[in-house]
Amino acid sequence: EDLRVDGRGCEDYRCAEVETDVVSNTSGSARVKLVDTDVLVGIKAEMGTPKLEKPDEGYLEFYVDCSSNATPELEGRGGEELGTDIANTLYRVFSCENSVDLKSLCINPREHCWVLYVDVLLLECGGNIFDAISIAVKAALFNTRIPKVRVLEDEEGTKEIELSDDPYDCIRLNVDEVPCIVTLSKIGYRHVVDATLQEEACSLASLLISVTSKGTLTSMKKVGKGSLDPESIFEMMETGQRVGKSLHVALQKLLDEEESLGSSRPKVGFLG
Amino acid sequence: MAAVTMRLPQVRGPVGAGAARGAEKHLVAPGDTITTDTGYMRGHGTYVEDDKLIASVAGVVERVNKLVCVRALKARYNGEVGDIVVGRITEVQQKRWKVETNSRLDSVLLLSSINLPGGELRRRSAEDELAMRDYLQEGDLISAEVQSIFSDGAVSLHTRSLKYGKLAQGVLVQVSPSLVKRQKTHFHDLPCGASVILGNNGFIWIYPTPEQKDEEAGGFTTNLEPVPLSDREVISRLRNCIVALVTHKMMLFDTSILYCYEASLPHQIKDILKPEVMEEIILEARQRLLDLEG
After folding, report:
1. What are the CB-based long-range contacts (under 8 Å, 24+) for B80-84?
2. S1 motif domain spans which residues (chain B) (predicted)?
């Protein structure tokens, strides 16, 4: 039987509200609200030097801040551990080479590249934070606009950065391969997707799977103090792939719809 | 089949212009001046500054002759003798249990205030003290009545009736205590097939209606048989209806819950929590309640 306390099936998500371009001084931003889970992601693109082992690629840096208002356990310094945990998970998820086209972030090999600083702010924790954060990161990456820059070298060797005059002339990132995290929590003998706080309290173990829109798994992580049977891990992986694909389809449809509304879209932001 | 719905956020105004509600209520926010007349005595929720009476909480001003107080709209539960509460055991102490009831202090359930299994009436001995954990453990949910209030405001509960005791399978919804209407009885058997206990402290317990009503258990045996799917659907629907009523700040009592349930029948259970469906259901329920009154 497929019935949870709030009437959803085991693979149903709660109603999500996604809005991009909410923070004006970032290169890209997104806010995701899953009933009572609220996440804000801002991306700033800055120029930096590429890493030594990958001289012709840019890179991403993640920083997660769990606001003390999110839940009572996070007051004071309690949010730091959770923040580093989420950041490490995001690094793992995006460690796959194809997820973001890092070569497009290169300006001059071995000298300049774009570094995307992804800042995640967890405003309210109502269960299923990893999924909400990954949806917000994907939406923010879709919304990111990086200005086109050329670095010219003078005769004496001084570098000049030339920015294009048109503020709308910018590069957009291709987010087709960006993975989204699906959290499957094991409750009893079944597993559920998008657990609320009450359901998370009842589940002893969960599996975090990051899935791309084509269904390929990029990383997997088990959390919780309980144990998971290998057969149930297979089942959960299959469910995760299926759910992940439909999640990507819904998100891409919404992002395209939002894009097509253009500047006529009424901005709701935080005052709605 | 997974169902994922995503949407763009929309600004939603308050649902349904409130019909004229009798006398005008004097609503204040913290810092608002209530009156500059010095002849009044100040009650809860007020303070005096510069010869003015100022509100310290957000709520409704209540005046009884010369006493002015402000009753907050969202506050912790303040116990009154005779209230029904639903609480969760947090600690097992020497001769009593500490119960969490969404109030400022944990409530107390004395060993002498419970019904021993089997319905015996005797003095509680040392063995009873040692066997306390067999009756109620940490994490159990109970329904009880307020017997008295201690001087510091802590509430003392009792379960000295067969209708109170440990709660078995069901769903708990936590709401603000001010939204639960005071009525003659708080145990309702709804005609849709489930029963509900509206605790005055804001804890609402929804459970499947038991078939046999006359059990001599005394409220300590828990029925852990699996609940049939039809009952579970009714309970989920009721839970979503209560959440919808609370989101729109409507008073909770058996008639409002029933009207909301009936208005939600054409929709699927999981759709009730979508904002537009919620508004539609609430409008219909509110209309029926207004027709009932006037």
Report:
1. B80/B146, B80/B149, B80/B200, B81/B146, B81/B147, B81/B148, B81/B149, B82/B145, B82/B146, B83/B145, B83/B146, B83/B200, B83/B201, B84/B143, B84/B144, B84/B145, B84/B186, B84/B187, B84/B197, B84/B198, B84/B199, B84/B200
2. 82-160
Does domain B28-72 sit in CATH 2.40.50.100? yes
Residue of B nearest to A8 (CA): B270
Residue A264 has pLDDT above 70, yes or no: yes
Encode pLDDT of B152-164 as tens digits.
Answer: 989 999 998 888 8
Assess A151–B contact: CB distance below 8 Å, yes or no: no
Whether the pLDDT of residue B13 is over 60: the answer is yes
Residues of B with CB under 8 A from a CB of A: 1-12, 171, 229, 232-233, 236-237, 239-240, 243, 268-270, 272-275
Torsional sign, CA B227, B228, B231, B232: positive
For residue A242, list chain B residues with Cβ-Cβ distance below 8 A.
2
Closest CB from B4, B233, B237 relative to A13:
B4
Domain positions in chain B are: 28-72
Write down how long chain B is.
294
- Pick from B4, B12, B237: CB nearest A7: B237
- What type of residue is B61? V
| B120/A67: higher pLDDT | A67
**Domains located in chain A, CATH noted:** 16-261 (3.30.230.70)
Q: Tell me the per-residue pLDDT of A143-194, one tens digit each, with 9 for 90 and over.
A: 888 888 877 777 776 677 777 777 777 888 888 888 999 999 998 888 899 8
Q: How far apart are CA B235 and CA B195, in angstroms?
A: 9
H/E segment holding residue A134: helix A129-143
Q: Both tokens of residue B56?
A: 């310290």
Whole-angstrom Cα distance, residue B289 to residue B294?
A: 9
| Cα-to-chain-centroid distance, residue A146 | 18
> How far does the CA of residue B2 sit from the closest CA of chain A (Å)?
5
